[in-house]
Amino acid sequence: MPRFLKIGTDGIEPEAGAPAEGRLIAGDPKFRTWNAEEAEGGLYAGIWESTPGKWRIEYDEWEFCHILSGVSVIAEEGGEARTVRAGDSFVLRPGFRGSWEVLETTRKEYVIRV
C-alpha cells in the first residue's frame, strides 16, 4: 500500500447526504462527500460539499477543515459567528455546538479524528 495519498475527488464515488433528522433549521441543503481515507482508529480525510441551507451541528470528534470554495457561517452556541470562505482553515474541537449555514455552495477538505 502506498504511503502517499492525494486528497481529491478523482476516482471516488461521492456519498450523498443531508443534515441528520431534527437538525435542519432552514433550506434544503444536500451534501456530497468524497471520503479518500478511512483508517483504523477513527481517522477520516476527504472532500465535503454542501448546497445552501442551515442546520445544527454537534461535534464529538476533532475536525480540521480547509475551505476550497463557497461561503459559510459557523456559529458557536453562546459564542461568535464566523464567516469562512475559500482559503480559510480551522479546527472544530470535540464539544463544539452551534450551527452551520451555507450561503454559497461550500466545498472543504477535512481530516476527522474520532
UniProtKB/TrEMBL annotation:
PANTHER family hit by this protein: (S)-UREIDOGLYCINE AMINOHYDROLASE CUPIN DOMAIN-CONTAINING PROTEIN (PTHR40943:SF2), CYTOPLASMIC PROTEIN-RELATED (PTHR40943)
Instruction: Enumerate the spans annotated as (S)-ureidoglycine aminohydrolase cupin domain.
Output: 38-110
Any Pfam family from its record, for instance, is Cupin_3
Its name, as the record gives it, is (S)-ureidoglycine aminohydrolase cupin domain-containing protein
Q: Which InterPro entries match?
A: RmlC-like_jellyroll, RmlC_Cupin_sf, UGlyAH_Cupin_dom
Q: Which organism is it from?
A: Aminobacter niigataensis
Where is the stretch described as Disordered?
A: 1-22
The residue stretches assigned to a coiled coil in this entry are none
